[in-house]
């Protein structure tokens, strides 16, 4: 019990059950799974007997039981055992509800008789005199069982139909279901067989039935050993002790069935706990049952609801949520879809929390992982498909390649857009799904909540990776919320709640019938708003929206002139010149000034390039910034175009406006484009605005004009030699031979962005042989052997054939630092394309105007060591003055390859250059002067010559034998490299 018996013997407890008008079961309120309990018969009272099998109720027996049940069930009471009768194993006592004596309340209402004291002293209530006085008052008032009206007395006896338990022939289960399907039936639970099976009186007919709770199964209670059933004994008041005059609780048919088992079987784990859980909520309580179906044995399957304050609770949900029952598909299929979803969701949570029956549960392997605490805000840049968008993260610097994050909408799948390269056409409703999102999301502010990632096969899109798959990639899934939705979208979706910062975009797509909800397996990660998605799908199906419509999907034939011949494009030109401006949609940004457009009115796609305006080409300085600006400004926007001509490759030339703004003006103002020398102001719209925009960028020295000096223009791409040189603040990260080294620019925003992205990656799992097969040229993550840090790296050399062991070696080049080393397969990881797409941060440099011995030449090793000690050892910043850019080596293929900056490396503290120090130490020699050298170059060589002469005079290192210069020098002027900042 809740409190130990004190000197007075009083205990506290809660009434669990009321079996008759004078008997109740009281349980302790100790905080244990199953508290102790006592069956107490009210001292000195005799209540009318309820019906047993083969007998009828005594007059007012049901009313008597109901009075005590409604008075006490589930309430806190104080009680004391007054006496016991060992011969029948019963305890008699006094029970108080608050300060009210329950026995006195029962007698004063006329629902029990008072018996005289037995022959054994003390076998009577301590309140006997008060009980007798209350009995006399009840008699005088003809209350309860003292009523003498024959009609009322006869009506107080229930007319019970045959019990449906144990004999199916007594009961038409299908008839009851047909009459009450989906309608709540009132009832009172008389017995709990196990946690998910109850025996109930259905009111008002008092049909006694057994109901299996729909959708679940609680642990079994086993079977009990045979029990000796005491015979019903009638003993009159002249018995020696007068004890038998107090009626024993009658055995109901349910109790007799429970006592009829022949073999004892122990309960399943948590069987007793599940039964107790159900008992304290529904036993002897008023409940409502919604019949869901009938099984082949005519057993009733139903949902049981019990009162909890002002609301009603679903017993099945409560059991499953507390880990005391499991979801059962066969009976859940009888329920509504929403009720099934709730059950499955609470079971999944109970499994995750390993509650009770799930204590030892081991989840199945899954290819999805939860993403925690990765919420961000941004603007939608691109809609890839009906279930995938690209968002520019507000927290990442504008224009950074890492600002754009691909987000796949959680738990939904829209029709595939196909792949033109593989001649795959869009699936039905794929275009409509993308267009639906495009018109609602492009350029709009959204909140993104990342939820999980999943490995998928590259060929199959969102399909899971199967064993032995050679190619896979990691896809990130999240829920996207539209911060300021339109009225139409508000009406389509469920309203946002306190935890939902806007309209759920995935819900919008599903509700319009442009996507279906993925049926996840147990323990697969899913959307945090999965129920809302399923509800939206149900609405779309019932409304026959989109994919769920019986109509044929719309068909749209688009003529793609970007893949057609130049002749076909020229033939189409008159149609585009007719009517001047045409509405269009920007499908792709091919470069800063070249785009692929869809013209709906003409049902064609074209490539359009700005007339008279050019941006830096691919791999040229500021090319990425120009593309990023155009993606943010016009990608997938509604625009207007004017077409003037078509070039020999089939690209149309013209102008483009977005929101009445000439987009070429935006590029020129940002310093990301320039007017062509052949620019003809007489035939291009807004020509004066274009000229003004370029002049403004020049004056501010923006981007491509940062080295611009007024009055010193370029001719044929060659800048005058007295131009202002680019100067970078750098730190040296790696030193090679021959005066070459790698640097990182100080305060480069890309460095911070990449480091933030790498910090978010989970790199604990080793790669799976067969699923991850890096090849030469691939960008991966590699663990640097010196400090075990993970960095972006390019595969320079890979083993021939298939990977056989985690110890197979790969040569990797760390593109952000310039190091190169050999690492085993176990130290490699695949990398997200958004992280790998950014160019390497490390810049290859060479010291200008001097020649440094290579490592395999005399003093080459000493030269490299000197340069390392001077730059790497100090870890300080230098100024790198760019004298020339050498792009002749092509793309980066490993250490020492790719574009190179020819620089003068200046120590800011001393003001001297590393170039001069190398000459003065005798570790380098000057390049020869040539007659075609510019004045600036000749001046630089003259300034450095003094340092070389000092080394010569001391015969240091390379000068120890005197003159060492080679006659093998250039005899013709070199091709000048392109200027500008990389």
From TrEMBL:
**Residue intervals of the Tudor domain:** 773-838
Q: Name one GO cellular component term.
A: P-body
All residue ranges annotated as the TNase-like domain in the record: 9-148, 183-360, 374-550, 580-707
GO molecular function term, any single one: mRNA binding
Does this entry carry the keyword Acetylation?
yes
- Region of interest: Disordered: 930-982
Q: Which UniProt keywords apply?
A: Acetylation, Cytoplasm, Endoplasmic reticulum, Hydrolase, Nuclease, Phosphoprotein, Repeat
Instruction: Relate the protein's function as given in its record.
Output: Cytoprotective ribonuclease (RNase) required for resistance to abiotic stresses, acting as a positive regulator of mRNA decapping during stress.
Q: What is the protein name given in its UniProt record? A: Ribonuclease
Q: Which organism is it from?
A: Anthurium amnicola
Q: What is the lineage of its organism?
A: Eukaryota, Viridiplantae, Streptophyta, Embryophyta, Tracheophyta
